[in-house]
Amino acid sequence: MLGFLKEPVVVTAEINVNLVALTVMGLITRLWGLCYPRAVVFDEVYYGQFVSLYMKRIFFVDDSGPPFGHMLLALGGYLGGFDGNFLWNRIGAEYTMNVPVWSLRLLPALAGALCVPLAYQILVELHFSHHAALGAALLVLLENSLITQSRFMLLESILIFFILLAVLSYLKFYNLQRHRSFSGRWWFWLLLTGVACSCAVGVKYMGLFTYMLLLAIAGLHFWHMIGDQALSNVSLLCHFLARGLALILIPVVMYLSFFYVHLALLYRSGPHDQIMTSAFQASLEGGLARITQGQPLEVAYGSQITLRNVLGKPMQCWLHSHTNTYPIRYENGRGSSHQQQVTCYPFKDVNNWWIVKDPGMQQLVVSNPPRPVRHGHIVQLVHGITTRYLNTHDVAAPLSPHSQEVSCYIDYNISMPAQNLWRVEIVNRESDTDVWKTILSEVRFVHVNTSAVLKASVFIGASLPEWGYRQLEVVGEKLSKGYHQSMLWNVEEHRYGKSQEQKEREVELHSPTQMDISKNLSFMAKFMELQWKILTLKNEDTEHKYSSSALDWITMDTNIAYWLHPTSGAQIHLLGNVVTWASANAAALVYMCLSLWYLIRRRRRIYDIPEGLIPLCVCVSRGRVVSCSALKCHYLPSPADSWQLWVSAGGVCGGGWAVNYLPFFLMEKTLFLYHYLPALTFQILLIPVVLQHLGDHLCRSVLLKSMFSALIVAWFSSVYFVYCTFSPVTYGQPALSAAELKDLRWKDSWNILIRKQ
Description:
The protein is an alpha+beta fold. Among the domains are: 294-515, Trefoil (Acidic Fibroblast Growth Factor, subunit A) (Trefoil); 555-607 and 642-752, no CATH class. It has helices spanning 17-31, 44-56, 68-79, 101-125, 130-141, 144-150, 156-175, 184-203, 207-226, 233-265, 278-282, 288-292, 502-509, 523-536, 550-554, 578-603, 642-661, 677-697, 702-731, 738-743, and strands spanning 303-309, 318-325, 340-345, 353-357, 378-383, 390-396, 404-408, 422-426, 443-447, 453-456, 472-477, 489-496, 560-564, 571-574, 619-621, 624-626. It has a 6-stranded antiparallel β-sheet, with no helix packed on it. Strands 2, 3, 6, 7, 10 and 11 form a 6-stranded antiparallel β-sheet that branches. A hairpin with a 7-residue loop joins β6 and β7 (404-408). The radius of gyration is 33 Å and the shape is elongated. It is found in: Endoplasmic reticulum membrane. The chain crosses the membrane at residues 68-88, 100-122, 154-174, 186-203, 208-226, 246-267, 578-600, 643-666, 672-691, 703-723.
């Protein structure tokens, strides 16, 4: 029974020394001196705020993208024991002792280090030589801009890591396709492709470019599979469903999970939740939730309410009135109704309270049982403090003469009758009998006499003059079509009125409610609202000192000063390796020219590169040459496969560069040099592809091959020389003198900071 113990247990493992060495070198270049400088470096001042909010569980909205990248940075802070207490107010501020600098910068540095072996493996999976793969990895290793970006609490290195992981996973999956379909390894790499794509998109929406590229490549490959007569219809269907599951369904589910974790972590109210709807705010702990807790759900006749404009732009505001009237004549000479002003006020105030009145009854209290207001009901809105009725008429609004003035009616005993009936239209209703609900219902108020819709003016400069206390204008929009958010209102604070007497009612308006009704939003409702805010929220784009255009990136005519030591000449700049950037541009140009040349000649039936549409693979078993169907071997391309390899490499590397670079020409946002780094990484991978192609197909004699090899060695030596030359401004040490800094200004457009002596 224990006979197996007679023989020793032997475990064998294959170790790729190249991969191990590249990984170690990547870790050294990215992790060395990671805590230096112990000060806020460039965009750490931006991302650090979100890390602190995560630590304190305070809700925030970042319009730059999804939350996964922020959560990874926060994970570093959590592992380091960060309590979130640091004031992220300026670049260069010294970190206090409670800030775990090494831990906060660790994950971006690890991601940057792992990009080196990923580059190697991608070239191997594209079936290029190990020399070419090693060259690609070393170029990534010695790229100064990638090193700089990965050594701080920034997201680009994490984004590039997931992008490269997605590409590598798909290539491994595709190379297993021919002989190991639906095997364990096949499923692993296919599923990892979807996971990596979702993570890339979850870090920054820039990851969507590579995700779309891989979907296009997968679609093209599946299109070729459809023409394979050896595959049955059932097999094709299984392949299609597997790809749909891994490349579409799983990324969608994971993307939703990022937001689920984000919302689960950030359950406390904070400064950013003011741009969210009242329902969203009420779901957070503290803030509005403390005010609205225990409010009645259904609005009834006699309810006392505050009405918040749903749009929340240019700022959140509530329907408001006060005793002041519109001036008899405006500055431009137009006349007004001289009625009581109605505005949209951006602060909570007792004058924001209104009473929902039944036009057929005089009472201003809720009956027992309450009579709820439903969609389509006619109501009057009575201002709680002044008891005047919300009114509009055919008088031009003060700032929007094309719209009607909205006022609270004052009876001047003149021929201007009150027009104070409003029809309640619940926009997000499920049926025409829906009840008007606190916080949840989005309502339009349509004026019965004129069909004008109550609206908050949203154009720039819609604040009233001094006579209106700079509050926002409210108008009656004529002939309105659709449901613009400026026309929608929701009840935020609500109580059932009990006092008929005005003095008692004023006291009641200041007192909290006691009824307890929960208004928790579902996750999908929160997700949809937060996603919409992320996509539509626009910060004012201001010209930054180090902003640049997409055209500046190719030739690296710009740089970014990340950090400057307060006393010495030590500084850190985002600057690339000049030789690598120039070589990448040359490789892209050579690839495009050669591809165009080959395509033209192929139209003339001249094949400079072997066609090789069907990959060949030769295996040897026991001295016999056998086909791949006889053995499950790793795919090895033959020389006849050269054209397919050339096209595939261009699709992955050249396509990756194009999809990550060209969209920036269409973007209206402030751009920086680091936006180019994902595209640059793909362009770097194209360099060894072109070099190997030139060596294999253009250098045919031994002499030419020797000369070509010597040129590559000299070229690579120059890459290493530039890396060493600029390493002081890559790592921030050692400090350089003014003369040494001047020597680094290889281009007049570079902003190298030199202190005046």
